[in-house]
Design goal:
Rossmann fold; 2 domains; 11 helices; six-stranded mixed sheet
Length: 318
């Protein structure tokens, strides 16, 4: 028990064997996740996999049936005692519609009292200076998102939880958020948990990735470890995909990842080069019109675990 307490105090977030169900539907089945201080963790999963439910449980917004959660050494039901050390931004901005952007920031500073981030500085970082007198209800969705994220950083918090941080932002807004997350993490040691479908953005910013699948964390590691795979992915275009599938079954170093239409397959090679694969195909009498090496990415890693492509749609800026 003492060892478990010590571990929870030395981690930003500790989730152990979390179970959550809605009626008879199990959403989280023994989910465990440890997040160390000063890290940026991307939480990814298919739609409906339980990302938002996980966030709501750790913030004390949802009850759960079993398991334990510690946030900065505090249980979710007592998270209010942390007084701004934990901040969260959901996919739909939560703002006072009658307040201006500046008034919203000043209100947050007044509530927290232990603030050190100046609204003027944050407004400039988020390109909101020209909107500082606008009531938040008059802002575009993208600028509401910027305002909500800006408010979350006023504390300044030790731990920030983002649910779909890039939704509703244009390309410039995404770059601003990535830059601010990176700087907050580097300069203040702020820890971030980013639940998102935008794998290319997560690949650029995160130190760790956790893949949520079928109610539990299927994979969690430093991003460089996850992308340093010994396997090689290739896409082969050929009118003889059925014959390629037969070859795969007979060869231990080749796995069939998926079919991409009628004339293309994606293969995973273990201790086999693309040139050696090409030679095997030619020797087998298989005609190859194109052979492309696919760089290991979060998307290909995610697909290998879930057998599905993650939804890559970007929220439309307004």
């Amino acid at each position: 028990m003492c060892a478990e307490l010590s571990q929870s105090l030395n981690t930003t977030l500790s989730i152990d064997s979390l179970h959550k169900r809605y009626g008879s539907h199990n959403v989280l089945n023994g989910l465990s996740l440890q997040i160390e201080p000063n890290s940026i963790v991307g939480l990814v999963g298919l739609n409906g996999s339980g990302k938002t439910t996980t966030i709501e449980c750790l913030l004390g917004l949802q009850r759960f049936q079993d398991g334990t959660i510690s946030v900065l050494g505090t249980s979710p039901k007592d998270i209010f005692q942390l007084k701004g050390r934990v901040a969260a931004v959901f996919d739909q901005p939560c703002l006072y519609p009658g307040l201006s952007v500046r008034q919203s920031s000043m209100h947050t500073r007044f509530v927290l009292r232990n603030h050190s981030s100046e609204p003027v500085t944050l407004e400039d970082s988020f390109r909101l200076t020209r909107y500082r007198k606008f009531k938040t209800k008059k802002l575009s969705f993208g600028n509401k998102r910027r305002t909500a994220i800006m408010q979350a950083l006023i504390g300044p918090p030790d731990f920030v939880v983002f649910d779909e941080p890039f939704i509703g932002l244009d390309a410039e807004g995404v770059e601003d958020v990535l830059h601010i997350i990176k700087n907050e993490n580097k300069d203040r040691g702020t820890t971030f948990l980013l639940a998102s479908h935008q794998l290319p953005y997560l690949e650029r910013i995160c130190t760790h990735i956790a893949i949520l699948h079928e109610g539990s964390i299927a994979l969690h590691d430093k991003i460089e470890n996850l992308l340093a795979s010994n396997s090689l992915s290739v896409r082969v275009r050929s009118p003889q995909c059925a014959e390629i599938a037969e070859l795969v079954l007979a060869h231990q170093k080749i796995d069939l990842v998926r079919h991409l239409g009628d004339d293309t397959v994606e293969l995973s090679l273990e201790d086999l080069t693309s040139a050696e694969l090409n030679r095997l195909l030619v020797q087998g009498g298989i005609s190859v019109s194109e052979l492309e090496v696919v760089r290991q990415s979060l998307n290909s890693l995610f697909r290998s675990i879930t057998n599905q492509d993650i939804d890559q749609e970007v929220g439309q800026p307004q």
